[in-house]
Structures are given as structure tokens and as C-alpha cells.
Amino acid sequence: MANKTTAEKLATIQKGYALEGATIELGAALIDGELHKDAPVRLPLAMMNRHGLVAGATGTGKTVTLHMMAEQLSTAGVPVFLADIKGDLSGLATAAAGSEKLLARTQSIGQDWHGKTFPVEFLALGGDGNGIPVRATVTSFGPILLSRIMELNDTQESSLQLVFYFADKNGLELIDLKDLRAVIQFLTSDEGKDELEQLGGLSKATAGVILRELVTLEAQGLEKFFGEPEFDTAELLRTAPDGRGVVTCLELPTLQNKPMLFSTFLMWLLADLFEDLPEAGDLDKPKLVFFLDEAHLLFNGASKAFLDAITSTVRLIRSKGVGIFFVTQTPKDVPADVLGQLANRVQHALRAFTPEDAKALKATVSTFPLSDYDLEETLTSAGIGEAVITVMNDKGAPTPVALTRLRAPESVMGPSDEALVRSTVAGSALLGKYGTAVDNPSAYEKLTGKTAAPTGPAAPAGTPGGVSQQNDVDAEARRIEEEILGRPSSRPSDTSSGRDEAAERAGSVPAPRAPREPEPQPGGGIMGDLGGVLGGALGGGLKSMARSVGTQLGRELLRGMFGTSSRRRRR
């Protein structure tokens, strides 16, 4: 290696990146301190479903790199998903203005630069931001991902899976958090003790922990992320009328307060895609490229079940035409089983200020193929907008390692004007579909006999969205303290029951339905028995519903490896 001339090193890179078919142009190689625009570094479009890693220290240009890659993917007709952590990626909707310095840089690497805009869709988790609200139902989200957000241990996660199993079997739709609370309350009540015994694994103490965590989520305002209309992940696969791929930017401006929610929601999107997309085999270009920013948040403190599910998803989703790029600071942020599946590597500069940094640097170098570079020196001296790259070539082999000066984006490297973002959202076809939350009858209403209140802008004046959510939170906190945790509650009691009674007298809340005789069930047996048990537990007015629920024992929901279950699979 040390005896090679510059010309020999140049020839190695030129040969290694002489690729057939469509490519993503990444930049030009730097060899022995000199830039060679006749040595372009590129990534085959057909190999982007082999996944990748964009890594580097803070401020070295990772966001700009994925911005530049997203532009070219869109131009090639490939839809892109971006987790927009800082809001900088909204600049894709605004054409950049060239400057003398910018044009000098782009010309030096052989880039024919022109300012452009790209088709962008702005999303926001639960409407926490300017974008179109993205929600998931609790049943779709599943017990494994929900346990991750609630930071439950393995035993508590297993117990939560039993609760989902019970709800799935018995037609109790878990749409939002109050539905899940209602099911747990039923199972831990005197009326539900028979069902709890049949489940054989949910103790009252564990139920108390789960309920307490649910109350915490609601008190933090996270209930707005769960509900309907549920976001259809097929929306991520759209192309614009001119054939370019739509770039979907998901923002969460309060990430610092909800890092676990953000990373777990991204995994839900991937899991839903995985379960619904058909096998595609090897394609000329991927159906979607998914950039997962702040990837370390996904793995920190993750349970074995969660890590196993991530590993399996990454391994298998490739055959469905989806490429995943993890974006983080160092490769050690990603578990070895996942890292081994990331064939395309863009490594920005690393800093070695501490002994821990030095260990991370050596570990990073060890993950690259042998090369003509002293990678420890190269990675600590690379400038902003430069990266060490190796990718999978069109024959499935790694390309030579190349220090690369990267191309510049053609849209604004920073946020778009907020007025432009708002107008883009207002003109989106998705706004009418997902813009207004709805509260359909589900487990909460079935178990309590209450009627779901309308939510969103169409709700009548004075009707709180979510059926007095704060009163629910307070009431549940009292119940946890008094009934499950066995201590008196210090919280004041709410007056919602008095208001409900007054509303009922005024006719705004329907009175309970009159009891009617249970209908005989064909076949009887265990299905009819469960219907009878539930009927007695829920009260006369709901007996027929409960018996009909009992007939669903044989229709278990199909859940994915994360325990997820999309609406399409529930039909």
C-alpha cells in the first residue's frame, strides 16, 4: 500500500467506481491531498436497498450528505423518507441561490450545479409541528414498540403482550391510550378476574406499573400520537406528476423531550411497510429509501426482543425494495448484527479528543476494507463536506475506499421559509385525509358504555376533545394509587361525573341501553362461554355485544415481528 504511486491509487479508484447502470453521484476522490474530478465516486442505484450508514462527528456534514442523496433519488423517481430532526431538510422545497464560492467548489469536483426545488411532503407526529399529523392506533403500534416508549422491562413487556392478545381475541379495539387503560382496568377488576386467570401472567402489581406509565404518557401530552385516522405508510411510496419521487420529511420539533417516541415511531413506519409490501427481488432502483436520523436513539437500552426485531426487519426488507440508511455519529452506535448488513458507508470526520474517542476511531477503521489510505489519520483530518466512502458495486463487491469531496445540494441547505412550509401543507392532498382527529367507538366505549365524543374542529362548542382527557388522567392516577398500589390518593377528585349526569339529564349523553336477552350462539362451547363471562362483566346492555365478541376467538390478528398490526391486515 505504502509503495503505490498517486497514479496507481487514482487508477484503482477509477476502475472501482466505473459502474454500469444508474448511479447516485457522491463526489470526487481526494488522493494524496489532491482533488481528482476525473475520479468520480458514486453509488449504484440498484444497490441502495443493501442499506447504508452515514456517520460522523457533529458538524461534519451528515445532514447535508443525506440532503444531497435525497435530491438525486427524487430525480431518479425514487421516493425518500427523511427524519428531519433539526428542521433543516425542509430546504428541499426551496431552490438554492448560487454563490461564487459554491460554484467554484462544484466546478472543482465536476458537478454541473443548478438551483432546484423538489416535491416535498411535510409530516409531523401527532401534529406536533407544521406538518400533516401522523398518528398510529395503539393496536397497530403493538406491544413491543409501546413497551419501548414506556421503558418497560421484559416481564412487563410480556404482560402487555397478554393484554393485547386479550383485546385482539375479543374485538376490543385499542385505538388510543384510554382504550388500553380501559382493558387493563377491566382485567384487574373483580368482573375481569376470570379472564385474568385465563391469561395467566398479568399480576396486579405489573398492571399498576403499566397503568402508571400510561398516565405518565398522557400527562406528557403523548396521547395525541395515538388515534385515528391512522397514517397509511403507502403514502411514503408516491411519485410526483413529473415522475420524481416525493421526499417525505417527518419533523418533531420537541425531539429533546420525546427522543424514544420519535425513534420508535420511525421503526413502526418501517415495520408497517415491511408487513404490507410484496416481495420484489432485485430491482433497477428501490421503491423507497428510508433515512433514519439519530439512529443511536433506536438502540439505547433496547430489549433483546426489540433488537431482534430490528435486525430481522433490516435483513428482510431489502427483498421488498426498501433501502435503509442509518445516520449517527459512530458505527459503534449500531449493533454488530445490524452494522454487518450496511453495505454502503459514508463516514465523515471523527474526533479523538478522549481515550473513548480514540477507541471509537480504531473500531471504525476496523470496519473498512483494506485501503491505500491511513484511515486513522484521514478520518481525523477530513474537512467539512468530505467523507471516506466505500459502497457495494453493481457486482455485489465492495468498492475501493475513497476519501471524497462531496457534491453540494441544489436546494437550500437549511430550513425553508415557514410560510412556504405552511402553504405546502395546506395544499397537500393528505391534509383532508389526516388533518382532523376522530374518536370512533372502541374498547373504552364498549367497556364503559359511554359514547365517543366528537373531536377536532367540528366538535360542538364546550365538548372537550378526547372525552375530558385531563379528568381521565387524574381519575386514573387516583385509581392506581388507591386500588392497585394500595395507598390513599392525594389528588383531588374531579367533578366530571356530576357533569356527565347533568349532560345525561339534558339529553346530550345517551342513557344506557335497556337490557335484552342474550342470543344463543351457534356451536356454544368456549366461544359462547367467554361471551357469557364478558356479558356478565360488562352489564346487561352490553351482553349481546360481548357474546358476539366471544365468537371471534378463532380470528386472531396477524401481528408482525414487532407485534404491529396495520389496518390493512386487520380487515
Q: Sum up the overall morphology in one term.
A: globular
- State the secondary-structure class: alpha/beta
Question: What's the tally of helices?
Answer: 22
Strand order of the largest sheet: 2-1-12-11-10-3-9-8-4-7-5-6
Q: Which stretches of 5+ consecutive residues score pLDDT under 50?
A: 454-469, 495-557
Distance between the termini: 60 Å
* Helix content bin: 25-40%
CATH class of the largest domain reads: Alpha Beta
Largest sheet: 12 strands, mixed
Which quaternary structure do these chains form?
Answer: single chain
Mean pLDDT: 81
Rg is: 27 Å
Tally of domains: 2
CATH architecture of the largest domain: 3-Layer(aba) Sandwich
Instruction: Specify the CATH homologous superfamily of the largest domain.
Output: P-loop containing nucleotide triphosphate hydrolases
The total count of strands amounts to 12
Under CATH, the topology of the largest domain can be stated as Rossmann fold
| Percent of sequence in beta strands | 5-15%
Biased composition (Basic and acidic residues): 475-485
Protein name: Helicase HerA-like C-terminal domain-containing protein
Biased composition (Low complexity): 449-462
Region (Disordered): 448-544, 552-571
